[in-house]
């Protein structure tokens, strides 16, 4: 079993902090050449310095911007082998309080962005006759209902189904599309929720293994799905939830 990715060029969308940064670090540790994006220019430069690559920024809500970004990236790198669609947005609110702006922002980042990023790269792979592997970072909220997450849950459920459809379309061409669906992972992005004793206790009571996730729990799954160890796996969503979605 070899999880090394030596020399593989991987694009991690949303690599500036939290889970995305942990995934990018894990890929780099396994020998991958990591290109990471952020919406923020300063963070993009920090990512580039961290991995010794170029600073990258992209508007995930705009398909034309994504296609132009991919064209520039392919010219810069000579080709990308692997893709991790990690960037995500959650605006927790009761459903009756969700505005059209909230809805469009969440679905734009969590669904529109991954779709057009993946199809732009896949088009290049198909035209060149090369293979590729993609991991979409979904969520347990796309599998089971979680309160105050109507837009977020809908976007992640759609991303899980999109993973299946794209996998089916491109399987015969050697392009694999998979997803991971984590539970609550301890990062700076979940700090406010998990540091609330009452809310944390309530959520922990839904996780049979009795703990929240750590970034490394997700990193290992992404490494597996990206690499050749999972060569026969496509269209699959791997839940990393400590049993949250069992019931």
Automatic annotation (TrEMBL):
GO terms for molecular function: oxidoreductase activity, acting on the CH-OH group of donors, NAD or NADP as acceptor. The keyword Electron transport does not apply. InterPro entries: NAD(P)-bd_dom_sf, Sc_DH/Rdtase_CS, SDR_fam. It comes from the Bacteria. PROSITE patterns: ADH_SHORT (PS00061). SUPFAM superfamilies: NAD(P)-binding Rossmann-fold domains. Keywords: Oxidoreductase. Pfam families: adh_short_C2. The keyword GTP-binding does not apply. Belongs to the short-chain dehydrogenases/reductases (SDR) family. PANTHER family: 3-OXOACYL-[ACYL-CARRIER-PROTEIN] REDUCTASE FABG, SHORT-CHAIN DEHYDROGENASES/REDUCTASES FAMILY MEMBER. This is 2-deoxy-D-gluconate 3-dehydrogenase. It comes from Arthrobacter subterraneus. The lineage of its organism: Bacteria, Bacillati, Actinomycetota, Actinomycetes, Micrococcales.
